[in-house]
Design a protein that fits this description.
The protein is built from eight helices and 17 strands. With 367 residues, it is α/β, with parallel strands linked by helices. The protein is globular and about 60 Å long. Keywords: Oxidoreductase.
Amino acid sequence: MGQPLTVGIVGCGAIAAQYLRTIGRLPQVRLVAVADLDPERARATARPYPGVEALGVAELIADPRIQVVLNLTVPAAHAEIALRAIAAGKDVYCEKPLAATSQDARRVLEAAREAGVRVGCAPDTVLGTGTQTARAAIDDGLIGRPVAATATMMTPGHERWHPNPDFYYAPGGGPLLDMGPYYVSSLVTMLGPVSTVIGAAGRTRAKRTIGSGPRQGEEIPVTVDTHVTGVLVHESGALSTLVMSFDAVATQAPNIEVHGEQGSLVVPDPNHFDGPVLLTRLGEDAARELPVSAGYTEAGRGVGLIDFLSDREPRAGGTLAFHVLDVMESLLASAHAGRSVDVESTCERPATVTLSNPATRGQGGVA
């Protein structure tokens, strides 16, 4: 199988723990070093893993042992860290979104093309058995020609549980840019790219109160839309209705439904890798659960790194991530302009994932 992929993590915040668990289970990937603006946090992150070093950010990016820089910084820093890694000749895998703006994301992709390196980006949840089994059902014609989908995410807001939720309510945040990548990436994976969007948006209040941690009770400003809804017109002609909200208490709506001329699918939460896919065929009285037929089993955040071992663009790749970001920005632009907006970018649907367990392949793991 050759040598494992060597990775360095920049950004040791809350999400890093999930990536560390996954990397520790992937024999194809070896963690070399971690870095953070807070050196003590980097040292604490590295401590449980013998052989993993805590380095400065510049030192990690320049380290010749590292093939891929795993960029887990806050969205506002995604482009800066990615561009620095690309300039050092490294492949880059970013936490979502690819950048805080599509303009910055375009700079990242252009720099990567010029440097001959690759860019990947979360969410790689679309590589799990949930979205992949649903996609296989669509590709196999089980619902006939797809005509519509709905995608719904409604919550009171992350400040109720996150001790430092400021970035959720600053540019680059909000329910659409925070949670939308999971939903839009899944919709594009199943139904193809989006050509036009029609949106509406609003916000309920100008401040939010932190509900946990040492800053509990502190108010933070809200500078982004906290309820976004709209219609995505796919190039195929299918219409997806999207609702993303930090303003609602709860919902009983399925996370995603896909409707075709001959059947309908209930697709599991795209923020997770697995879950049941339910099919109701025309003329049937009840939904039935489909057998798992595609995707990575027992996957976790970071499984998309495996694709850097091949020569193709990662399936959780920069082109897909840029299109998803472009769709979301276009939806916000449509909401503010009060008219439909054409999406300038496009992408190919990523290749399907053969049903497999990535933890049983190859050699390597956490150093």
